[in-house]
Design brief:
382 residues, alpha+beta, Chorismate synthase, AroC fold, five-stranded antiparallel β-sheet, four-stranded antiparallel β-sheet, 18 strands, 20% strand, binds flavin mononucleotide
Length: 382
């Protein structure tokens, strides 16, 4: 079983991910993890913290001469802004944060809650996901995410090959697939900032190169749709998830929703085994299993809760009505969120791969994947 846990506070010494069950034989590229950490820090609309930090990972264990060993991998990301013991408490809880409920639940300060609830913790999830991508890549599986909406402004993805789309996204200051719209999005974020307000948005995540049968229909907690929903909804500020056509599927008849199955003998050598679909409204998942079509998820991020023009709150000492506390904050972090979601989804897909094909060694996984396809072709009399 592949899994990870994280530790660390926003202004603590460092953040840590402990990745357990990661297969041996993966040629670990630390630069690739660092590149994702840099991407997480970017995107138009971020606050001052990103100018302080220069995130990079230190791999503390589980690797020898650049190769993973199959033993636990500890990833550490130091905090330059390490000052937790000098920081003041907040006495006016911010609506939209865990400040009030957390401090009551743990019978502690607001600071104790916000330091761990903070999305700074996602550095560890990005590092773990960037590691998982290095297991997926040799198997031909890629995870890719981009922003499709900021506030009310939709930026539909421009169609193209994956590498072309990656280039567009990496040229966009807001990580959309249409950098020509950057100016318009930036102006929207600027207007919002001037008004002391914040913005959310929608992120689309796509995973390609998938085999049949990751996840299973047999038990509720093993269904891949449920597990992906948990993984993405557990990212700070995510408030909705759609798979494939998502909510739109509830509004139209089944004949317009489900993806007809056809057979194309020229495609039997591919991971589809020749079973093609006229469209992919299911988003690559049927009955909690991958169906060899691209996985497509859309996730809604709420606007940042810390407002420069704060909402009404209550002073925890005096119980008088006052405006909520303000701390240095992002105005819009949808771009960064797309990087986080890409990596969170990659990790979940790596878990599903390890479950289906065994998790001790990458070479073994590759051979079992090939063997599975050999057996499936035999069953289909191909
Ligand atoms: C990339 C990213 C950056 C964020 N930056 C901030 C921020 O600067 N200020 C803030 O108040 N919330 C920020 N958030 C959101 C909070 O962490 C989150 O809303 C809060 O922990 C409450 O959790 P919930 O929204 O999941 O209920 C950010 C979230 C993400 C994903």
């Amino acid at each position: 079983m592949l899994r990870y846990l994280t530790a660390g506070e926003s202004h603590g010494r460092a953040l840590v991910a402990l990745v357990d069950g990661f297969p041996a034989g993966v040629d670990l590229k630390v630069e690739a993890i660092n590149a994702e950490l840099v991407r997480r820090q970017g995107g138009y609309g971020r606050g001052g913290r990103q100018t302080i930090e220069a995130d990079h990972v230190e791999v503390l264990s589980g690797v020898w001469r650049g190769m993973t060993l199959g033993s636990p991998i500890a990833l550490l990301i130091p905090n330059k802004d390490f000052k937790i013991d000098q920081m003041e408490d907040l006495d006016r809880p911010r609506p939209g944060h865990g400040d009030l409920s957390g401090s009551i639940k743990y019978l502690t300060s607001v600071r104790a809650i916000l330091e761990r609830a903070s999305a700074r913790e996602t550095t560890t999830r990005v590092a773990a996901g960037a590691l998982a991508k290095q297991l997926l890549a040799p198997l031909g599986i890629t995870a890719f995410a981009y922003v499709v909406q900021v506030g009310e402004l939709q930026v539909p993805p421009k169609l193209g090959e994956l590498e072309e789309q990656r280039a567009w996204r990496d040229h966009s200051i807001i990580y959309t697939l249409d950098p020509d719209r950057d100016q318009q999005v930036a102006e929207l974020i600027d207007r919002c900032k001037q008004a002391g307000d914040t913005l959310g948005g929608i992120i689309e995540i796509r995973v390609e190169g998938l085999p049949y049968g990751l996840g299973t229909h047999t038990q509720w907690d093993k269904k891949l749709d449920g597990r992906l929903a948990q993984a993405v909804m557990a990212v700070q500020a995510m408030k909705g998830v759609e798979i494939g056509m998502g909510f739109q599927a509830a509004r139209i008849p089944g004949s317009q929703v489900h993806d007809p199955i056809q057979f194309d003998p020229s495609q039997t050598h591919t991971r589809s085994l020749g079973f093609t679909r006229t469209h992919n409204n299911a988003g690559g998942l049927e009955a909690g299993m991958t169906n060899s079509q691209p996985l497509v998820l859309r996730v809604a991020m709420k606007p940042i809760s810390t407002l420069a023009k704060p909402l009404e709150s209550v002073n925890l000492q005096t119980k008088q009505s006052e405006l909520a506390s303000y701390e240095r904050s992002d105005v819009c972090a949808v771009a960064a969120a797309s990087c986080i979601l890409e990596n969170v989804v990659a990790f979940e897909m790596a878990c599903a791969v390890v479950e289906k094909f065994g998790g001790d060694n990458l070479e073994e996984i590759k051979q079992r994947l090939d063997l599975f396809y050999e057996m499936a072709r035999k069953m289909l009399n191909e």
